[in-house]
Amino acid sequence: METVRHSEHTLKTALISENPALVSQYEKLEAGERRLLNEAFKPDHDLFGPITLHSQSDWIISHPEAPQDFEQFFSDPYRKAPSPEKRSIYIQCIGSLGNTRIISEEYIKWLKGYCEAFFYGLTVKLLEPVPVSATRCSFRVNENTKNLQIHAGHILTFLKKQKPGDAFCIVGITMIDLYPRDSWNFVFGQASLTDGVGIFSFARYDSDFYSSRYEGKVNKLRKVSSSDYTVFDNYYIPPVTSVLLLRSCKALVRWIDGDSDSPGVSTTRGREDNGDLPKPAEAFKEWKAWILKCLAVVQK
């Protein structure tokens, strides 16, 4: 394992800018917000610790990129920000997210609630779910993992056409694995910053995905027309566990607790014959503890 550490001077240089527009923002910070920002300058503090690289396949090692400080991010001409006319985030579900209708509906409500809490002040709207066939995307069986995959770039083209006029962005989510081009093995997601569209797959967040017992393997894709999407009629959907939910959206305290008083957070639960479907939030305990530490600094 390797640990990436930066000095206090390096961290301050990266996070604090002399850009007048940013200076005016710093001046508006309240005392608690300043305390939390100062915690980021302490290399060994438990709130913002160093990054641990576990293997040579970690992204930072295998995909070297030029560093970017906050001023570079702020000044990026391609960076988009919400406007009064475009303040809505749309979520488009492609295929089913659960192996029953109620699970699929609840899962997307949980994700919607998280987005409302994380992007507080923006409106999050759900579009009607669509089957894979509606996107007219290419598909294949992965030669290595033997699971169905859909073409991420083709999904982006579909989402761009679906994007409402008041949308800041439209995000597609699916339980089907993705690939960006024939030469690639897979991709977790793909997005276009200029078009404000993105597609993300939760397929590989399933704890069993890389195991021999994974139930989504397809031994052989029968020869069908490129327009025959019946292969997705009964495709495997992993169970929605707390680990899968955590990997899908991280955590916020009130959202984790399901507090109905949370501003903008939807905690409505669907019902089946067996009663309420509880939110599987057990794996969020560590993130909840971290957020509570941050709040303690702000409210000190």
Fold and architecture overview:
By secondary structure, the chain is α/β, with parallel strands linked by helices. The chain has 10 helices and 12 strands. The strands form 4 sheets. A 5-stranded mixed sheet has the order 4-3-7-10-9, sandwiched between helices. A 3-stranded mixed sheet has the order 5-6-8. A hairpin with a 2-residue loop joins strand 11 and strand 12. The longest helix has 18 residues.
Q: Major beta sheet, specifics?
A: 5 strands, mixed
Mean pLDDT across every amino acid position: 82
The ordered H/E elements are EHHHEHHEHEEEHEEEEHHEEH
Strand content: 15-25%
**If strands are numbered along the chain, what order do they take across the biggest sheet?**
4-3-7-10-9
Structural class: alpha/beta
| Contiguous uncertain segments of 5+ residues | 260-275
Amount of helix: 25-40%
Number of helices: 10
- State the separation between the terminal residues, measured CA to CA: 35 Å
Gyration radius over CA: 21 Å
Helices and strands in order, then pairings?
Layout: E1 2-4, H1 8-15, H2 20-27, H3 31-39, E2 51-53, H4 59-62, H5 70-75, E3 88-93, H6 101-118, E4 123-126, E5 139-141, E6 148-151, H7 152-162, E7 167-174, E8 177-179, E9 189-192, E10 197-201, H8 242-249, H9 253-257, E11 271-272, E12 275-276, H10 285-298
Parallel strand pairs: 3-4, 3-7, 6-8, 7-10
Antiparallel strand pairs: 1-2, 5-6, 9-10, 11-12
